Amino acid sequence: MNDREPPRHLFDHPRNVRRLVRLLVAVGVVLFGLDAVIHRHAEHPWESVFGFYAGYGFVACVLLVLLAREMRRLLMRREDYYGEGPPTQQAPDRGRSGD
Amino acid sequence: MIELHPALPLFAGALLGGVTSGRSRAVVLLAAPLLGALLLTQLSSGDRVNWEVLGLSLSLVRVDRLALLFGYLFHLAAFLGVIYALHLRDRLQDMAALSYAASAVGAVFAGDLATLFIFWELLAVTSCGLILARRTPRALRSGLRYLLVQVGSGVLLMVGVLLYAGEGRGLAFEHIGLGASGGVLIFLAFGIKSAFPLLHGWLTDAYPEATPTGTVFLSAFTTKVAVYCLARGFAGTEALVYIGAVMTCFPIFYAVIENDLRRVLAYSLINQIGFMVVGIGIGTELALNGAVAHAFNDVIFKGLLLMTMGAVLQVTGEMRGSELGGLYKRMPRTTFFCLIGAASISAVPLFSGFVSKSMVMSAVVGEGYFGVWLALLFASAGVFHHAGIKIPFFAFFAHDSHFVATAREPPVNMQLAMALAAGLCVLIGTFPGWLYGALPYPLDYSPYDAGHVLAQLQLLVFSALAFTWLKLSGIYPPELRSVNIDAEWVYRRGLGIGVERLQAVFGPWDRRLRGLGRSLVARAIALLARHHGVHGVLARSWPTGSMVLWVSVLLGTSLLLYYV
Q: How many CB atoms lie within 10 A of CB B403?
């Protein structure tokens, strides 16, 4: 779910997934708070707004997903739309020696 | 001093690779990019190989810092790719891959537009081999569509160059600009290969259809040659700033809903090229350095991500997010490399994307393009969303797919290539100094100040939080077996529908006209048959006696008239 190390079968326990989510939230809160401590030399006035990057990142991703969902209604077609079957079980890349 | 053409070792490797096998093949394939890179160390800025042919003065080789950096990059990419593909026993792929890399090297060292055109077309033909080598009907069709578009770009380039040179500017490949005659055509030719919006269909169509190893090579060369050409010929062209901004934004929407994970990465490739195109459009030294550095890093981290997806495809034969998942249990090393690639493309501090993308961002905001800056920031969050999270999540985590039972780590050579690429991503991200030192312009820049790092971390962590929230609340669109309509629809479907519509409108008219014509012909035939047919007046056979009778009547009549 994010870039943390995934040891073997770690996420089979819902408990570990919950821990990861909590960790992520905690990191988010800390980073958000750091805005009050670390001064950014802003090249654009919006940059000095408290929590600008955090807010922008969150809103951007939510908007991205909501818009993409709407795009599906318009653009999504069945897998055989172009008259080709699904790309299942295509020969793995073993070259001529494979088959 | 230039003694050999820099592309020669790779071309020679391609030829030798076609006649060797086993261990000697491995030695040849690995030695070619190493020797080529060694040859580059002998070159220095300002070297040229000029050539007089047919009254034209051509520069087969022109060396400067920009060309050298791309030259090294392409040799590095070829070397990593060769390691990744070492387990194959497929001469077509060996030869196509190395001659493709050689064409790319030839193109960036081309000092004139005619030489560039030759390597431009070689790029098209050799790269197509990597798609056809998949040896499925689907890949064959996709490869031919790819070839048509690529050759089309070559035709535009040729016509553009003819117009350009026809104005007396000569063939030297220096700054061109849109104002020059033929400039727009050359711009479009470069634009096709760098996947400008609406001209990008070939990329997302064909790259995911190539072989697992082929896509790794494909992602490295064609688009980066185009980026190099734009940087050389069109630096500071303002249109590029806006074209690039669109390129960063629109693919991420497709990437969110696309099911084929290599196609997701193809969209993300366009998104990354967008950052480079913006940098080139701005055209200041910082922006150009940023664009070139980002091209360098993109080859490595995009190659790494495609290697991990190629490894998944190799062991499972499946690339659709809807069918994959849970593979971290069986492919922990591949998962780890994928996460490093994901961190690099998302520009996490200490990974390679961060040190180059931030240069472009600084240049954009420094030059006052605030709207573009916001768009790039949106795209930065988006790229983390689809390439940084979606790719590893749906391939290696999410729900357990049935492949979890059988999957295993890919061959050792693939793992080695991934490890090397991952190491480079971290190395460049942590110690950007040596990459900065190789850039075309002198640079006084440090990406690691506290404010900047914090800003980037906030952007990324809150994007991740958004993904987590959307996923847990079920709003996130699930991976579905589907295709999405994009620009290539025009020639895959649109033209066909257009022809059908035309037929529907003009078909009846056509039938009526032809019916009329046929009935006229039939009437003419009937008329002829009446007179000349078997029983026609003119075809009737007459007895000899009646002829003699008529002759004697004629003679008698004339005698009578004469007498009278």
A: 19
